[in-house]
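Hi W., the flavin mononucleotide complex you wanted:
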Amino acid sequence: MKFAYRLLHPKVVFLLVTKHQNKTNVMTLAWSMPVEYDTIAIAISRENYSYELLSKSKEFTLNVLPIEKLDIIWKAGTTSGREIDKIKKLGIELEEGVKIKIPHIKIAMAFLECKIEKEIKTKNHSLIIAKIVHAWADEKVFKDTWLEGCSVPMHVGKKFFTTNLKYFEPK
Ligand SMILES: Cc1cc2nc3c(=O)[nH]c(=O)nc-3n(C[C@H](O)[C@H](O)[C@H](O)COP(=O)(O)O)c2cc1C
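Structure:
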């Protein structure tokens, strides 16, 4: 039972960028899903510093870095912005938001700008339902879907990651 949730993996891995006043943070996030074509949900632990920032600003960005940046992805998901300045330490360059006040990551292959609409609290996590107010993807890797073999990082569980190497089509 302990690992039943991993039956839902692999899941696309994002870097969640949050900001409130002069504090900006980044953390790794794999628990996300669409709930409407323009609305998504993320699950975030209320112990995370990122939760503190996004519950104040009510906005965030989700960024997809290529699998080649796995070391950054791993470190952003295993250290806390409460103890270190991850943006500085990981050498993450940010760009100003388009429709919101939260920045996105310069080297991202795609990013979503989101505004929080609703929060549902479960035991340790909050399900954050948010409207996508702006989206961008590099057309070299995304047309109307991610292109085959374009290095989208997906979390399998533990320290294992995979990517979208091969696609299959029904007859
Ligand atoms: C691959 C991976 C996926 C993760 N997915 C989530 C997630 O979906 N939700 C969550 O609350 N934490 C997730 N985490 C854990 C947070 O990234 C981690 O607790 C981080 O240190 C929080 O940083 P912060 O305190 O700076 O916000 C994930 C970690 C990794 C390595």
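The longest helix spans residues 49-57.

W.
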